[in-house]
Amino acid sequence: TMAARAAVRDVARSMGYPYLVGDKISKLIPIGSQGFPMTLERALVEEPDFKKEYDESRETKEIVDMAMRIEGNVRHIGVHAAGVLISPTDLNDYTAIQFDPKGEGKIISQYDMYSIEDAGLLKFDFLGLGNLRIIAEAIELIKNNYGVLLDYDTIDMHDKKTFDMLTRGETTDTFQLNGTGMTKFLMELAPTRVDDINAMVALYRPGPLQFIPEYIRRKNNPSTITYLDEALRQILEKTYGILVYQDDLLMMANKIAGYSWTELDKFRKAVGKKIPAEMAEQKEKFIKGCVKHSGWDEKKARELWTWIEPFAAYGFNKAHSVSYGRVAYVTAYLKANYPTEYMTAVLRSEEGEIEKVAVTVKESIRLGIKILPPSVNYSEKQFSIIKGESGDSIVFGLTTIKNLGSNAVEEIVNQRNKGGNYKNLSDFIKRVDMRTTNKRSFEALTNSGAFDDFLDSSGDRSQMFLNIEDILAYQRQIHDTHAGEMSLFGELEEVSDLKLKPVVKLGRGEILKNERELLGLYLSGHPLDPWKDLLAKRDTTIVKINNTFKEDTQVLFAGIITNIKFMLTKKKDKMAFIEVSDLESSIEVVVFPKTYELYKDKILKDTPLLFKGKVSLKNKDEGNAEAPKTNEDGTERKVYGGKSIILESIQNIN
């Protein structure tokens, strides 16, 4: 429907005003709170700048007055992402239907989500979670490796190892519990039961987020737990007296205000659908009920309502929280107890998403799991586990190599399964169907390390990479001969093994750069390796910056730029947000316009550099007038917790 800002923009455009006019007015309208969207009428009361503009500008008044007339009307058709309607007879008996305007062939109702229930149809939200597939895959890998058959429904929900891991903040790749903000809260909370996780899932959202510190304080110091009335204890005891779930609100209405179960359903709809008119009606009913049913005085009853009313904007269904909390706990349990199998399952789910794979690989290495590069002799299609005397390793799957087609992967694995491991490059070329491999395939296999088994002790990937044309010529010769080309004497010629010409080796940095481009990360080494011993003696590492350095601390540290995002400030000056990694971790470095102009020639990926700057909390960076509040496409720029560096200078590490 037409929200306040959208109504102003659309009206201004339709009335022929320049885009900047509608944009300027709409930005004066404040954002409403969750469940209570801002209206133009409210904005004129609550926002002085908007009211001043309305009173003093004829065109603003004209636009806003017209926008008020269309505000709230339907703007376009929307389709609920997971809503499914269930009807006892044909849908046509209950609702007008049409095809999804996106052209996906789905049939949708022409009624909105409220009217369709009034028409008598049942509406369910069916959510698909990729994490359930990860859990199932991890359980299958555990069964194959250890002969242990875990049951999702009977996993130990009191596992100390799991709660200890969460308290240490090792939440990467868990469901719902990862991310800087949630991790910080979990470390402060030190969860000891799954109820704590359920509550965090419900509270870690806009609105209830403000209650997390109080929840943590009460858990860590039970003497601070208080209740407005003793009758609330039995309802809120598990959440330390904090209102967390919609269900608890309903129990209050039933136990304290005397609502019948039939009346509760109306109360639930008013709260759950966040309908202001119905909430106002329920307010008086609730207060009178507390007085009549529980013998409270009206002042206390109104105090309780004042406490619970904002909850209507964000109340979370307990069944939803507990279901998500269980999935979150199980992912943490598997990571804590079977890290190799769990991380392999996660990596399989991320195939094709290079940035995600890189994060999970880093976490696996931090857990002490050895990660092996892809190999035509050991890799399966997906990430897989190789058992070894010194521990299990995870090996990259062939499908994870960028520029290597699925047909080539299928052929490489099939031929290996038929005839055993490939002895050398010549053997590989003879056995693999040339129709599945081309120049890009050979370059991808070479630069990713998949041919490393064929290198002699003194060789490196340079020799194969710089002999690609000869390799392709040899491939054609092999397969032309196999196709039946005859010699002058009428017999098939036997082709000797491929001999690669000597080459000038590529620099180590070039080899690693190619590897990262194909796999998403450095695996066989790191561009900072030549300075490894020197860096070990230094005090300043990215891990230390993230964990111990305070805001405004001056730092000088070495790193590699692995990602660059350019942006324009409001003044249209260019700046950059760069991701810098060292041998262990990564951090965001903010390059404001003046600094960018001085050092833009040095902002290059994969080059060892020294960065000088000041530690900053990321949310405080957003307060800087130069920092853009939106991305280049106009969408809101997301800012997460943690630290960043405000850059002052860059220099070559040499």
Largest sheet, described in full? 5 strands, mixed, barrel
Helical amount among residues, as a percent range?
40-55%
| Cα shape | globular
Strand content: 5-15%
Q: How confident is the prediction overall: mean pLDDT? A: 85
Total number of strands: 12
Residue runs with pLDDT of under 50 for 5 or more positions: 486-492, 619-641
What is the radius of gyration? 31 Å
Instruction: Walk across the major sheet and give the strand order.
Output: 8-9-10-12-11
Number of helices: 29
Structure description:
The protein has 654 residues and is an alpha+beta fold. The strands form 4 sheets. A 5-stranded mixed barrel has the order 8-9-10-12-11. A 3-stranded mixed beta sheet has the order 5-7-6, with helices on one face. β8 (554-568) and β9 form a beta hairpin. The longest helix has 20 residues, at 318-337. It is globular and about 95 Å long.
Summed up:
This protein is an alpha+beta fold and 654 residues long. It has 29 helices and twelve strands.
What structural keywords apply?
654 residues; alpha+beta; three-stranded mixed β-sheet; 12 strands; 11% strand; globular
Question: What's the SSE blueprint?
Answer:
Blueprint: H1 4-14, H2 19-27, H3 40-46, H4 48-56, H5 58-70, E1 83-86, E2 97-99, E3 107-109, H6 113-118, E4 122-125, H7 130-146, H8 160-167, H9 180-189, H10 194-203, H11 212-220, H12 233-236, H13 246-255, H14 261-272, H15 276-294, H16 298-308, H17 318-337, H18 339-349, H19 354-366, E5 370-372, E6 384-386, E7 393-395, H20 406-419, H21 425-431, H22 439-448, H23 461-465, H24 468-482, H25 508-519, H26 532-537, H27 542-547, E8 554-568, E9 574-581, E10 586-591, H28 593-599, E11 609-617, H29 618-621, E12 643-652
Parallel strand pairs: 5-7, 10-12
Antiparallel strand pairs: 1-4, 2-3, 6-7, 8-9, 8-11, 9-10, 11-12
